[in-house]
Design brief:
Elements (H helix, E strand, L loop, with lengths): L1 H22 L3 E6 L6 E3 L5 E10 L2 E9 L5 E9 L10 E8 L2 E2 L1 E3 L5 E10 L5 E9 L3 E11 L3 H20 L9
Parallel strand pairs: 1-4
Antiparallel strand pairs: 2-3, 3-11, 4-10, 5-9, 5-11, 6-7, 6-10, 8-9
Amino acid sequence: MINKLLPALGAIAAVVSFSGAAQATTVVTTNYTGANMNIAPGTDGTYSADFGKSGIEAGDFEHIYTFTLPAYLTGSASINTSAVKLKAANDLDLFSVVFNGVALTGTYGGLNEAVFANDVPIIAGKENTIVIKGTSRGNGSYGAQATFAPVPEPASWAMMIGGFAFVGGALRRRNTARVAFA
């Protein structure tokens, strides 16, 4: 009896698992590199980048941008969306944006979205990552900007603090003329 029930139970389990998988949402993941980000170096050790995507097909998406920079920097990024009408074919909703593990804050959902993060550590010579998750209703788009600035080295901080101490000491020891009134 049990030998006859096992195949039937297996068939039922397969149908249930298949129907559950058919209901799951498919997320389209796309990987991009720094070449997709238009990263421009500045003459003062800074970098700027602009990137984004338009014509995103209907459905959930995950866009992963990875890039490498040659120095330890601190970064700032902002991402914006806009649409003509809420829930229209060109409307796009962001679910989350994470930059090197830091979640961007701001306005999620709605007609126009704007999210940002500041002071995100950038690791020299290693892959840094921005992950954008959202849903498009058929022809969505987003635009993003990022800036990266050098982090002062410990020696620079020590020299600056030493300079403040020197100036403070010089001001304290300064001779002042005493005025005596008769």
